[in-house]
């Protein structure tokens, strides 16, 4: 019997079907071991030796693999064809060797697509494990560990509120923060455009002013309204005739097939997918045998695939859409490896696969790959110049006509930010023609700051800089979101205060390690290890030699000294010069205090030097306290009708709040965001909380309405119910409160066996357990009676298949038991193990 190891159960099932009875295929469910999340897992003083630890939740699977390996005559490691796949194979081999279960014959096979032909051909061409790729994996893993576990503790101790730093993560964050700074420092510039609406032969067109009073008009030439009105008057008064008609043929070639990064970019633009979601769907399409391997920076296609694509084009379109020769592509990305083909369909006769997001992503991949072998589009660009009788004023109209669509008949690449591309049709005009002038307009414009990064444009920028690898972009961006260093609004990255502060800290104290050139250079060295051109320990030694002393130097500084340095470093942003020339650091509340950056338990903020006499504060992230970040002084809303005390509206570092009284006796309350306006009436209501609705008719215990950390709620006998708004706190009556609490209690029983399933999907193809689709508190989920897996929003419950449900359950089962696995050793040493395992859990996030 020959044992084949792959990563996923879906892949295992497909491959076993191709190989026949002598082969048994098992899944490792991804990586089986990693560096323990604790100090000492990498030892720089001992040749960067690494202490690996098996994942706690993989014990059952490893036992199954080891048991089968002992009976096998040959072990075939068939994990993904990249560095991570090579690493998983190496880990499996090492674990089996330690268990004395390694068969005598061990082979490595790789295939770029999960089809019968690709798998069969790969099995006929086995090789040994690639030691260079394994060394590259070890170098990257050690490097990321050393950066995370050395730099993150510095952040925790010197920068309150900071969570982690990472080799690629911090550089990606710097890009987002620098763009935010560009936007904030941008000064809009006024300019005007003058255009004439004209008509010839019943067809209208627009001509823009390009010469006025003998001078060429650029975009910013007319900067004042007076000049714009004068130019408009001159155009209105002039009689314009065609001086020149220039028609120029233009050819557009199709884009190359997808790489990992271009797929992420285009899926973000056209489908609205995040990078992580794109990779998750692409992984499933690959494992289903629908597309080739989805982690690649190569743009070339296999010769047989090109032939199949050309055949499909010939069948779909007439001969003009097929170029004479096949197209060959070369990547322009920095550090590209081109070890694998571009992402393409495995079969070009299949133009549709799956449903929902799977179908949409496959359609994108199919059309891009097919279009890459189609004929160029032929267009005709026309430029018409019109001049008035004096020759001093000129207008220009431009248009573009598609003569032959070529690949555009199937696919057109998206753009991150729309450009002013005038593709309107123009009427037929000849020299000397005088089209009718219908209307002249003068429009005011203002220059715009550079746009914030979208996922697509940020991935593109990272790739251009040579930072990170295509397979890491999705996880890198996800970490930034998970750490709350950025937020996403309208598909754009906004830098949060914590992200800005971490970036400032790293720029000030670790500038080299967040510089673009250094990070890209390090990527090149790591790629040299993959290619056998560099020794992995030597690369790590060169990095560690400078990095370790630098972190030790910063760790010795007092937090107050760090804050003082950041105060100076961030002065242009936090305290920009004022228009009237006054001191930008002067406290607006007391007048004689000086503002400076302060560090607190929950992060940084701006405060007055006269604290505690002056309690002025403002948020860290707002330059000069703009956008509501500044406390311009307390506002008295009025007097409480019962106590007669002033109720004051204030703003602190945690947002606006109201206060009544002074010192320890003062009553305070945060101002909810859903209130349209803070009035005296609302202030009195908020200060009266919590509100007792009444006694529950069944238990006789009080029902209380209040505002908590997660919004308005009801509380009864330790059980909670959610309220929809702040107003509902004061409006909800007894009947409604009892009903809401009952609903909340019912929804809590998500796993109850008494509830009816929405659908019974069938037996799990690998475990035989019955899979059901259920309605849960947070949406539909699937369960096999042991494991529950939430249904992603991308999968419609009506279109859910048994295999998709099984994959969701398998993925959840592989991830969920991790916590139990961590606790298992506690049985041997109950007094010490739990405490020992607690600290690594906290540090694990830092290394990501």
TrEMBL record:
It catalyses: ATP-independent breakage of single-stranded DNA, followed by passage and rejoining. One of its GO terms (molecular function) is zinc ion binding. It comes from the Bacteria. The keyword DNA-binding applies. Keywords: DNA-binding, Isomerase, Magnesium, Metal-binding, Topoisomerase, Zinc, Zinc-finger. Pfam families: Topoisom_bac (PF01131), Toprim (PF01751), Toprim_C_rpt (PF13368), Zn_ribbon_Top1 (PF01396). Residues 819-848 have a biased composition (Basic residues). The record marks 31, 140-141, 144, 156, 295, 483 as: Interaction with DNA. Monomer. Releases the supercoiling and torsional tension of DNA, which is introduced during the DNA replication and transcription, by transiently cleaving and rejoining one strand of the DNA duplex. Introduces a single-strand break via transesterification at a target site in duplex DNA. The scissile phosphodiester is attacked by the catalytic tyrosine of the enzyme, resulting in the formation of a DNA-(5'-phosphotyrosyl)-enzyme intermediate and the expulsion of a 3'-OH DNA strand. The free DNA strand then undergoes passage around the unbroken strand, thus removing DNA supercoils. This is DNA topoisomerase 1. It comes from Sphingobium chungbukense. The gene is topA.
């Amino acid at each position: 019997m020959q044992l084949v190891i792959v990563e996923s159960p879906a892949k295992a099932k497909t491959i076993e079907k191709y190989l026949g009875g002598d082969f048994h295929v098992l899944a490792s469910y991804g990586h089986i071991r990693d560096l323990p999340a604790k100090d000492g897992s990498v030892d720089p003083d001992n040749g960067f030796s690494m202490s690996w630890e098996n994942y706690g939740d993989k014990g059952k699977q490893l036992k199954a693999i080891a048991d089968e390996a002992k009976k096998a005559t040959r072990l075939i490691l068939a994990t993904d064809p990249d560095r991570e796949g090579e690493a998983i194979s190496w880990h499996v081999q090492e674990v089996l060797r330690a268990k004395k279960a390694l068969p005598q014959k061990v082979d490595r096979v790789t295939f770029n697509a999960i089809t019968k032909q690709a798998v069969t051909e790969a099995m006929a061409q086995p090789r040994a494990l690639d030691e260079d790729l394994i060394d590259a994996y070890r170098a990257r893993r050690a490097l990321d560990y050393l950066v995370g576990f050395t730099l993150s503790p510095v952040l925790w101790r010197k920068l309150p509120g900071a969570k982690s730093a990472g080799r690629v993560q911090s550089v990606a964050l710097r890009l987002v923060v620098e763009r935010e700074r560009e936007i904030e420092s941008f000064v809009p510039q006024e300019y005007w455009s003058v255009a004439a609406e004209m008509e010839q032969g019943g067809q209208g067109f627009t001509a823009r002013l390009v010469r006025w009073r003998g001078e060429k008009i650029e975009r910013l030439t007319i900067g004042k309204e007076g000049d714009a009105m004068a130019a408009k008057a001159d155009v209105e008064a002039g009689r314009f005739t065609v001086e020149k008609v220039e028609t120029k043929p233009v050819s557009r070639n199709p884009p190359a097939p997808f790489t990992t990064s271009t797929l992420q970019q285009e899926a973000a633009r056209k489908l609205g997918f995040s990078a992580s979601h794109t990779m998750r769907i692409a992984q499933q399409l690959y494992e289903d045998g629908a597309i080739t391997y989805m982690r690649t920076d190569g743009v070339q296609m296999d010769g047989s695939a090109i032939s199949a694509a050309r055949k499909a084009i010939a069948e779909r379109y007439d001969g003009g859409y097929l170029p004479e020769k096949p197209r060959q592509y070369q990547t322009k990305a920095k550090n590209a490896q081109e070890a694998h083909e571009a992402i393409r369909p495995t079969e070009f006769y299949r133009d549709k696969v799956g449903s929902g997001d799977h179908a949409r992503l496959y359609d994108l991949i199919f059309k891009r790959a097919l279009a890459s072998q189609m004929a160029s589009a032929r267009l005709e660009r026309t430029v018409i110049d019109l001049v008035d009788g004096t020759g001093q004023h000129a207008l220009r109209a431009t248009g573009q006509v598609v003569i032959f669509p070529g690949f555009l008949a199937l696919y057109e690449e998206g753009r991150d930010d729309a450009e002013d591309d005038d593709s309107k049709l123009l009427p037929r005009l000849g020299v000397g023609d005088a089209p009718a002038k219908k209307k002249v307009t003068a429009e005011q414009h203002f220059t715009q700051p550079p746009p914030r990064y979208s996922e697509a444009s940020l991935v593109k920028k990272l790739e251009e800089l040579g930072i990170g690898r295509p397979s890491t972009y999705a996880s890198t961006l996800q970490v930034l979101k998970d750490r709350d260093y950025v937020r996403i609004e309208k598909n754009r990255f906004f830098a949060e205060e914590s992200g800005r502060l971490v970036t400032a800290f790293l720029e000030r104290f670790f500038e080299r390690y967040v510089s673009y050139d250094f990070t890209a250079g390090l990527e090149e060295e790591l790629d040299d290890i993959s290619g056998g051109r560099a020794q992995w320990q030597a690369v790590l030694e060169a990095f560690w030699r400078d990095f370790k002393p630098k972190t030790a130097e910063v760790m010795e500084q007092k937090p107050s000294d760090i804050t003082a340095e950041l105060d100076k470093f961030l002065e242009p942003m936090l305290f920009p010069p004022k228009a009237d020339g006054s001191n930008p650091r002067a406290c607006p509340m007391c007048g004689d205090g000086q503002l400076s950056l302060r560090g607190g338990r929950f992060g940084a903020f701006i405060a007055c030097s006269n604290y505690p006499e002056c309690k002025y504060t403002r948020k860290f992230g707002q330059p000069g306290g703009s956008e509501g970040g500044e406390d311009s002084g307390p506002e008295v809303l009025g007097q409480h009708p019962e106590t007669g005390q002033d109720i004051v509206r204030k703003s602190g570092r945690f947002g606006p709040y109201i206060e009544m009284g002074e010192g320890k006796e003062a009553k305070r309350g945060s101002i909810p965001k859903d209130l349209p306006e803070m009035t005296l009436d609302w202030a009195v209501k908020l200060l009266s909380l919590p509100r007792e609705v009444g006694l529950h008719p069944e238990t006789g215990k009080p029902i209380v309405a209040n505002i908590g950390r997660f919004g308005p709620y009801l509380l009864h006998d330790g059980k909670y119910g959610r309220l929809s708004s702040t107003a509902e706190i004061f409006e909800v009556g007894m009947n409604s409160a009892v009903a809401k609490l009952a609903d909340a209690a019912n929804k809590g029983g998500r796993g109850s066996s008494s509830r009816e399933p929405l659908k019974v999907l069938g037996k799990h193809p690998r475990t035989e357990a019955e899979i059901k689709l259920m309605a849960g508190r947070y949406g539909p989920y699937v369960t096999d009676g042991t494991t529950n897996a939430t249904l992603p929003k991308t999968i419609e419950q009506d279109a859910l298949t048994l295999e998709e449900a099984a994959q969701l359950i398998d993925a959840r089962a592989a991830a969920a038991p991790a916590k139990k696995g961590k606790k298992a050793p506690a049985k041997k040493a109950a007094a010490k193990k739990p405490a020992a395992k607690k600290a690594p859990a906290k540090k694990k996030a830092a290394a990501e």
